[in-house]
From TrEMBL:
The active site is at H115 (pros-phosphohistidine intermediate). Homotetramer. This is Nucleoside diphosphate kinase. HAMAP family: NDP_kinase. It comes from Dissulfurispira thermophila. ATP binds at K9, F57, R85, T91, R102, N112. SMART domains: NDK.
Length: 137
């Protein structure tokens, strides 16, 4: 069993597709081990994406991630990290495979509907960023 952090980003929350996205995780055998809706400050978004602090898109990305509410979840299952990445699709929706969340809901490479941890190390950091052990079941 593995855990990963998933975020439904502000663009997808505004589109009212929270349920459709969560249903794709469940249909693919991932369990929602924790979930909440929050609205990050710019500072909180900067802390979450600290690995990208030197990238040209850091400022714009953290503006976007703090522009409205998001849904943060811990997904649990076998190979949860890779499985979630597969269900999400490529970062740029133009390259995302048919049937993936980003193909169906993303607007562009920045406003791309969902986030998913990309390794066990980032999953551990990202889950801790939003949840205490007492909130994960
Ligand atoms: N991003 C962006 N421009 C880029 C690359 C990424 O705005 O050229 C944003 C996008 O929202 C992406 C996030 O930064 O989801 C994190 O980038 P990463 O390369 O880690 O992609 P992901 O792991 O989310 O697919």
């Amino acid at each position: 069993m593995e855990r990963t952090l998933s975020i439904i980003k502000p663009d997808a929350v505004r589109k009212n597709v929270i349920g459709e996205i969560i249903s794709r995780f469940e249909k693919n055998g991932l369990k929602i081990a924790a979930m909440k809706k929050i609205w990050m400050t710019k500072q909180e978004a900067k802390g979450f994406y600290i690995v990208h602090k030197d990238k040209p898109f850091y400022d714009s990305l953290t503006d976007f991630m703090s522009e409205g509410p998001i849904v943060v979840m811990v997904l649990e299952g076998e190979n949860a990290i890779a499985k979630n990445r597969e269900i999400m699709g490529a970062t740029n929706p133009a390259n995302a495979a048919p049937g993936t969340i980003r193909k169906d809901f993303a607007e562009n490479i920045e406003r791309n509907a969902v986030h998913g941890s990309d390794s066990p190390e980032t999953a551990a950091f990202e889950i801790k960023y939003f949840f205490s052990e007492l909130e994960i079941f």
